[in-house]
Design goal:
This is NLR family member X1. Helix 34 (815-825) packs parallel to helix 35 (843-856) and helix 41 (976-996) runs antiparallel to helix 42. The protein has 1025 residues and is an alpha/beta fold. The N and C termini lie far apart (157 Å). It is elongated and about 120 Å long. The protein has 42 helices and 23 strands. Strand 8, helix 13 (320-329) and strand 9 form a beta-alpha-beta unit. The relative contact order is 0.04.
C-alpha cells in the first residue's frame, strides 16, 4: 500500500507531455461506438451544419476529414480527466481546447481553398457588374427611342434635352378618397397645405422616420406619368440615380396580357436577358433593386389571401398579377423598392398598409415651368428645316416671346398648359404652323390631334374591372363628343353643370354605366374640360383647347354616333335579323323539301329584306354626313373671317394689342375647323390610328362618304369663294388626303384668288401640294398682298409655271425673289402671259434679273413694274434687253422716279419693238419738256402709247380712269405726301388744259376728271381714303 500511494503521487506530478501521451494511449483504445456516443453528447454545442461534417469523419467515410469539438466541463474527476484527454482520430492527434475545428489537409491546402472562394466571389461580382452595364445600355437605347410624333422636332431631339419635371405633391389615402368639390386641375394645384416632393426624394424616410419601400405615383391622363418614368429610367442608365444599383421596369399593360404562371426570376430574364447572371443574387445579397410598375390600372389585383396566395419564392411559377401582389406585400423580395404609377381611380386597389408614400403628379402648376418647356422644345436646332441659323434663332425666339406674353395674360391657354400633354400639343401645332417646309407637308392638323390622342389613350381601357372593356377613346367619343357636337351646332363653347349632366347622365341605366362615369370623372374629365377663366363665366366649363371641341364633334359625327332613334333601333334589329336569317335559311330549305308550303320562300325573302332596307338607311346617313360637311364648310356667315390656320395661330399666341374690355360684347363663335376635321379623320392614316384607339371607321363607310361628298362639296366649291374661305377649302383638301377626290376638285378651280391671305410657309406648301395633284393650266392666280418672299416662290414654283395671269404685287419681293422669277420666266414650260409685280422693292439689282428674263422669255405679254424703285439705272437695264423680247405688248413703269432721259430712252426702244405698243410712265419725275417730247411720240405717229398724264395735249387721256383707279387702289401702300403732291400737279395740269380748249365737250370731260381728283385730294387730306 505505501508503494501504491507513492505511485499515485508520482503520477499526479508527472510531466505534461507524458500525461498527454498517456491520455492519447487511453483514447486510442476507445471503440467506434464510444466515439459516436461522445459525439452525440457534444452535438448541442456544435454550430449549424456541423453535424454533417462530424458524421463525415466516421470510419468508412473516406472523404476529407473534418472534426468539430466543443468540450464542456463535467462534474468531478471524470470531467477534469476528460479535459485532459487527447482525441485521436484516424491516427491524427488533436490538442484539447474549448472549441476545436479541424479540416483535413495542410495549411497550404486551406489557403488555396480560401483564395479559390474569394476568386469565385470576385468573378461573380464582375459578371453581375457587366450584366448590369449591358442592362443599362439596353434600357437606355429602348427608352431613348422617341415615337414618330417626336421626329418632327429635328434629328438632335432627345428626352434628356427637353424634359421638364412636373410638380409632384405628397398626398395621402385620405386626400385621395375625399371627394373634391371641384374637378379642375387648378383647384388641386392651389392647395398650399400639400408638400412638394422631388423625384429623387420619393424613397426618403416618411414623417415617422420609417423607411419607404413602396411608392404610389398617381395622376390623371396627360399629367406626364409615363414620360416621368421614362426619364427616371434614362437617368439611372446614365448614373444619375445612385440610390439604386438595379432598376427593373415592367409595363402592367404587358403583364395584363399574360395569364400563364411564371416565376419572378423567369419573368425578369424573359424581359431582360442580360440579367441572367444577376437574377440568382436577388434576395440573397445586399443589391439595391427598384421595380417600376407602370400603369397599374391595367391589372386586376386581389390582395385577399383567398384571391392571391402568399409566395416568397422567386422561383415558383405564379400568375403575373400574383407576383405584383406579393412584391407589394413585401412577402417576395422584401428588401426591394417599388414605384407604381396609376390613375386616381385605381389607387385604392392597393391597401394602404402596403404603401409607404402617395405622390400626385400635378403637371406644370407654375407658368415658369411652362415657359421653360416651350423654350426647350421650340429652340431645338434643325427643327425648322433649311433656314439659316440666324433667321431660325430669331423666329424661334419670337415664337417663345409671344407665347410667354400670352401665358402671362392668364388666358385659357395658360389653364390648358397645366397639363404637360397640352404643352406638347401647343408646341407641335406651332411647329406645324411655322416650320413646315416640305411639299406635300409631312403632317396634317387632324393627324396631329389624332396622334396626340394616341399618345395619351393608346390601348387604354376605361375600367379594366368592367366586363365590357370599352376603350377610353370610344367612351370619350360617345360622351364628350356628343357634348362637343351639341356645342358646335348651337355655336356654344362654354357649358354649365346642367349641360354636363344632360350629356353624361341622361342615358345611364345600369350599374356598369355608373361605374364607368365615376372612373371617367376621376381620370379623364380634366383632360378635356376645365373651368372657364373668362370673367363672368367662372362656373362654366370649356374645352381645354378650343380646337379639341371641333375635333371631338367631328369624330362623333364620322363614327356615326349621331343617330336618330329609328337608326339606333334599326341597327340592332337588323343585326339580330341578319343573324337569324342565316340559321333560318337552312331550316326553311329543309322544310320546303318535306312540306309543300309555298309561302316559306316568301317568308325567307322577307327576312332578308330588312337588312337590305337598313343598309340603304345607313347609306342615307352617310349622305347626311357629306351634306353636313358641305354646309359647315361653305357657311356664308363665315366668309369674311380669318382662315382657320390664322385662327389657330391666334388662339395659341394671342392677338397683339389692347385687351378686350370685360363689358365689351364678345365676337361670335366660329367653328370652321369642324368640317376640316371631319375630312381629316376620314384619311387612311387617321383611320388606322383611331382603329388602335377602339374607334373603328370602315373603308366602305369612308368610300361612301367621299362618294357623297362629290355631289355636295365640289358643287359648292365652284361658286366664287372669298380668299380666306378658298384657303380653308384648299386646307380641307389637304387634310382629306384623297388624291382622286382632290384632283377632281382642283380641276374645277380655274381662278384662284388668295389676295390678302398671309401666305405662311405652311400655306404655300398646302397650295403647292393641292394644286400639284393635277397638271391643268390655271387661268388666274392672285397672290396680291400675301407676304411672299423668295422662299415662298421656290415652294410655289411648279404652280406658278402653269398660271397665265399671275398677281404678285404688294409683297416683299426683292432682288432674291427676282432671281426666282427670272428662273420661272426662262423655264421652257412657263405659261405666264400677264405678270404684275407692282409695289415690290425690286430695285436696280432686281431689274437686272428681270431684264435677263425678258430677253429669254417666250410667253409674257404684259408686265407691270409699278412702284418698284427701279430708278433710271434699272429702267436702262430693262431697255438694253427689251429688243431681244418678241412677245411683250404692255409695260408699266409708273411711279419709279424716272427722269426725262430714262423715260425717252425706253420709249425710243419701244418704238422699234415688234409688239410693244403701250408704256406707262405716270407718277414719275418727268418735266414739262419731257412730257411734250413724249407727247410727240403718240401712237398715230410712232405706234407707241406713252401714258404719262391724264391729259393728252388739249384733251383728256383715254386712260384717265384706269390711272386714277391704280392710284386709288395703291394709296394705302404709297407715300401719301408724295401722292398728294402728284395729285396737286395733275389737278393744275387739268385746269390748264381745260382753259386752253374751246370745245365744250372736252371742257365737260376736264371738269369731270377734275372733280374726281379733288375728291381724292379731300379724302387724302382728311385721312378717310
Amino acid at each position: 500500500r505505501p508503494r501504491e500511494a507513492e505511485r499515485r503521487r508520482a503520477a499526479s506530478t508527472r510531466a505534461p507531455g507524458k500525461a498527454a501521451e498517456g491520455a492519447g494511449g487511453a483514447e486510442g483504445g476507445l471503440g467506434a461506438g464510444q466515439k459516436m456516443s461522445w459525439a452525440m453528447q457534444c452535438h448541442g454545442c456544435l454550430p449549424w451544419g456541423s453535424w454533417t461534417r462530424l458524421c463525415g469523419s466516421q470510419p468508412g467515410r473516406r472523404a476529407a476529414r473534418c472534426v468539430y469539438l466543443c468540450t464542456a466541463s463535467g462534474p468531478g474527476a471524470a470531467g477534469s480527466c476528460f479535459h485532459r484527454k487527447i482525441l485521436h482520430v484516424g491516427g491524427t492527434s488533436l490538442p484539447s481546447r474549448s472549441c476545436v475545428r479541424y479540416k483535413g489537409g495542410s495549411q497550404e491546402n486551406r489557403a488555396q481553398r480560401s483564395s479559390s472562394h474569394h476568386g469565385l466571389d470576385h468573378l461573380r461580382n464582375v459578371a453581375s457588374s457587366d450584366a448590369i452595364k449591358k442592362h443599362q445600355k439596353s434600357l437606355s437605347a429602348w427608352f431613348s427611342n422617341q415615337p414618330n410624333e417626336e421626329r418632327q422636332f429635328g434629328p438632335s431631339f432627345s428626352l434628356d434635352a427637353i424634359h421638364v419635371d412636373p410638380v409632384i405633391r405628397e398626398s395621402s389615402l385620405e386626400q385621395i378618397l375625399k371627394p373634391s368639390p371641384d374637378l379642375t386641375i387648378q383647384h388641386q394645384l392651389q392647395q398650399p397645405c400639400r408638400q412638394v416632393i422631388s423625384l429623387q426624394n420619393l424613397f426618403d424616410v416618411d414623417a415617422c422616420g420609417r423607411q419607404v419601400k413602396n411608392v404610389v405615383l398617381y395622376g390623371t391622363v396627360g399629367t406626364g406619368k409615363s414620360t416621368l418614368i421614362k426619364k427616371m429610367v434614362v437617368d439611372w442608365c446614365h448614373g444619375l440615380l445612385p440610390r439604386f444599383e438595379l432598376v427593373i421596369p415592367f409595363s402592367c399593360e404587358d403583364l395584363s396580357h399574360s395569364h400563364v404562371p411564371i416565376s419572378l426570376r423567369r419573368l425578369i430574364t424573359k424581359k431582360y436577358q442580360h440579367l441572367r447572371d444577376v437574377v440568382p443574387l436577388l434576395g440573397s445579397s445586399n443589391l439595391k433593386v427598384l421595380f417600376i410598375l407602370n400603369g397599374l390600372e391595367r391589372l386586376n389585383l386581389d390582395f385577399r389571401l383567398a384571391g392571391t396566395e402568399l409566395c416568397c419564392d422567386a422561383n415558383e411559377p405564379v400568375p403575373p398579377s400574383a407576383i405584383v401582389v406579393n412584391l407589394l406585400r413585401k412577402y417576395l423580395l422584401p428588401e426591394a423598392s417599388i414605384i407604381v404609377t396609376t390613375r386616381p381611380s385605381a389607387v385604392r386597389r392597393i391597401p394602404g398598409k402596403y404603401v409607404g408614400r402617395y405622390a400626385e403628379i400635378c403637371g406644370f402648376s407654375d407658368t415658369n415651368l411652362q415657359k421653360l418647356y416651350f423654350q426647350l422644345r421650340l429652340s431645338q436646332p434643325g427643327c425648322d428645316g433649311e433656314n439659316s441659323v440666324a433667321s431660325r434663332s430669331g423666329e424661334q425666339d419670337n415664337l417663345v416671346e409671344m407665347l410667354s406674353r400670352n401665358l402671362e395674360r392668364q388666358n385659357q391657354i395658360a389653364a390648358a398648359c397645366f397639363l404637360p400633354s397640352y404643352c406638347w400639343l401647343v408646341c407641335t401645332t406651332l411647329h406645324f404652323l411655322y416650320f413646315t417646309r416640305t411639299v406635300p407637308p409631312s403632317q396634317t392638323l387632324s393627324g396631329i390631334y389624332t396622334s396626340f390622342l394616341r399618345l395619351n389613350f393608346s390601348g387604354e381601357v376605361l375600367d379594366s374591372t368592367d366586363p365590357t372593356k370599352i376603350s377610353m377613346m370610344k367612351y370619350v367619343a360617345k360622351t364628350v363628343g356628343k357634348l362637343a357636337h351639341e356645342g358646335v351646332m348651337s355655336r356654344k363653347t362654354s357649358f354649365t353643370e346642367e349641360d354636363l349632366q344632360q350629356c353624361f347622365e341622361v342615358e345611364m341605366k345600369t350599374e356598369s354605366e355608373l361605374n364607368q362615369l365615376e372612373v371617367f370623372r376621376s381620370d379623364v374629365f380634366r383632360f378635356f374640360l376645365t373651368p372657364c377663366v373668362q370673367p363672368g363665366k367662372e362656373h362654366t366649363f370649356v374645352f381645354t383647347i378650343p380646337a379639341m371641341q371641333e375635333y371631338l364633334a367631328a369624330l362623333y359625327v364620322v363614327l356615326g354616333e349621331k343617330k336618330t332613334l329609328v337608326q339606333k333601333v334599326g341597327k340592332e334589329v337588323s343585326e339580330i335579323i341578319g343573324k337569324v336569317s342565316e340559321d333560318a335559311a337552312v331550316v326553311l330549305s329543309i322544310i320546303s323539301k318535306v312540306l309543300p308550303l309555298r309561302f316559306l320562300p316568301v317568308l325567307f325573302n322577307l327576312l332578308k329584306m330588312f337588312p337590305r332596307f337598313f343598309s340603304r338607311l345607313s347609306g342615307k346617313g352617310r349622305d347626311t354626313i357629306a351634306r353636313t360637311m358641305a354646309e359647315e364648310l361653305f357657311k356664308e356667315e363665315d366668309y369674311y373671317n380669318d382662315d382657320v390656320l390664322d385662327q389657330i395661330n391666334s388662339s395659341i399666341l394671342g392677338v397683339e394689342g389692347p385687351m378686350r374690355h370685360p363689358d365689351e360684347a364678345a365676337d361670335d363663335e366660329v367653328f370652321e375647323l369642324f368640317p376640316i376635321f371631319m375630312g381629316g379623320i376620314l384619311s387612311r392614316r387617321n383611320r388606322a390610328i383611331l382603329e388602335q384607339l377602339g374607334c373603328s371607321i370602315k373603308n366602305l363607310a369612308a368610300f361612301e362618304i367621299a362618294k357623297a361628298m362629290k355631289k355636295t362639296v365640289i358643287r359648292n366649291s365652284r361658286k366664287g369663294l372669298p380668299p380666306s374661305e378658298l384657303m380653308d377649302y384648299l386646307f380641307f383638301l389637304h387634310e382629306f388626303q384623297n388624291e382622286r377626290f382632290t384632283a377632281e376638285a382642283v380641276r374645277s378651280l380655274r381662278t384662284v384668288n388668295l389676295s390678302s391671305v398671309k401666305m405662311t410657309p405652311l400655306k404655300c406648301c398646302v397650295l403647292a401640294s393641292v394644286m400639284g395633284s393635277t397638271s391643268h393650266e390655271v387661268e388666274e392666280l392672285n397672290l396680291t398682298s400675301c407676304n411672299l418672299d423668295a422662299s415662298s416662290l421656290r415652294t410655289l414654283f411648279p404652280v406658278l409655271l402653269r398660271c397665265k395671269f399671275l398677281h404678285l404685287q404688294l409683297n416683299s419681293l426683292g432682288p432674291d425673289a427676282c432671281k426666282e422669277i427670272r428662273d420661272l420666266l426662262l423655264h421652257d414650260k412657263c405659261a405666264v402671259s400677264n405678270l404684275r409685280l407692282g409695289n415690290n422693292p425690286i430695285g436696280e439689282q432686281g431689274a437686272q434679273y428681270l431684264a435677263e428674263a425678258l430677253a429669254g422669255n417666250r410667253s409674257l405679254t404684259h408686265l407691270s413694274l409699278l412702284h418698284t424703285a427701279l430708278g433710271d439705272r434699272g429702267v436702262e437695264l430693262l431697255a438694253q434687253h427689251l429688243a431681244e423680247n418678241q412677245q411683250l405688248q404692255e409695260l408699266n413703269l409708273g411711279y419709279n422716279s424716272l427722269t426725262d432721259t430714262a423715260a425717252l430712252h425706253v420709249v425710243e426702244v419701244a418704238k422699234k419693238h415688234a409688239t410693244l405698243d403701250k408704256v406707262h410712265l405716270y407718277f414719275n419725275d418727268i418735266s414739262e419738256d419731257g412730257k411734250r417730247a413724249l407727247d410727240s411720240l403718240r401712237m398715230d405717229r410712232d405706234g407707241v402709247r406713252a401714258l404719262v398724264f391724264l391729259t393728252a395735249g388739249t384733251d383728256v387721256s383715254d386712260y384717265w380712269s384706269s390711272i386714277l383707279n391704280v392710284v386709288h387702289k395703291n394709296l394705302p401702300f404709297w407715300d401719301r405726301e408724295r401722292v398728294r403732291q402728284h395729285l396737286t400737279i395733275i389737278l393744275q395740269d387739268l385746269e390748264s388744259s381745260r382753259r386752253q380748249t374751246v370745245n365744250p365737250w372736252r371742257k365737260a370731260k376736264f371738269l369731270r376728271v377734275e372733280s374726281e381728283v379733288k375728291k381724292m385730294l379731300g379724302k387724302l387730306q382728311h385721312g378717310t381714303l
